[in-house]
Amino acid sequence: MTTLGERIGSFLSEKRDRLANLLLKKKLTPNMLTLMGLTINLFAAIGLAIGFHRTAGVVMIFANSFDVLDGALARVSNKITRFGDFFDSTIDRYSDLTLYSGLIVFYFLKQDIIYIILVCIVSIGSVSTSYVRAKGQNVIPIKCDVGFMERPERIVTLIIAALFNHIHIAIWILAILTHLTVIHRILYVKKALENPAHLESGEFKVPNIYEGKSSFKTSLMKILFLDYERMTWQYDLICGIIIFILIFPPF
After folding, report:
1. Catalytic residue of the set 67, 70, 88, 92
2. Domains plus CATH for the chain?
3. Residue 85 appears among annotated catalytic residues
4. 117-100-68 Cα angle (round to 5)
5. What is the pTM of this model?
6. What is the dihedral of CA 211, 217, 222, 225, to 10 degrees?
7. Is 228 helix (H, G, I), strand (E, B) or coil?
8. How far is 79 from 220, CA to CA, in rounded Å?
């Protein structure tokens, strides 16, 4: 049975690839798109800083479409390179921190120390999520991409909150879920390193952080970490709940 997420993903992927082919004809390169995305996000950050959050949300949609298109353009142009991946990841960190800086300025002007601290916590969590993934992949021979709140989820959370002028709700959600994602990845790497024989022999087994735990503890941990793969009904349900909270905030 096809989930709602799969249908949406398939539709967007088709449109993305068509647009990437069009950009290829315009002689644009993936790195150009990456830098264009950062530049546009600077304007989104200004919008967040001065309180024009709905406008900033629209600008973020435009800016982050370039983040989607640069990878698609690299594929259709056959220009997938290690430097391109490195460059894209680096610029993503600049884009993220630029947006959070805009929010810090916004709350500084409002003299709201609680939310200044919370945005700092979000910034730390966002950067740490990416760092733990990169560092983890240096010590184990597989991707360390477990965890719910990856960059696409963080950006979509910010965009929806901004469009509905409920940015404070996004800050609380990100402050909690980014750090849960970091903890999830730390446990994943720790579990992988508990059997060094697999690392040395090359017969690496994908770590299971729930191994040896009761079904009750496993269920609780899965719920805590929102540990469900994309394109599953559980993942779609979690996203739906978060979107509902962003649109109809409890406070």
Report:
1. 92
2. 1-111 (1.20.120.1760), 112-154+173-251 (no CATH)
3. no
4. 145
5. 0.90
6. -100
7. coil
8. 43
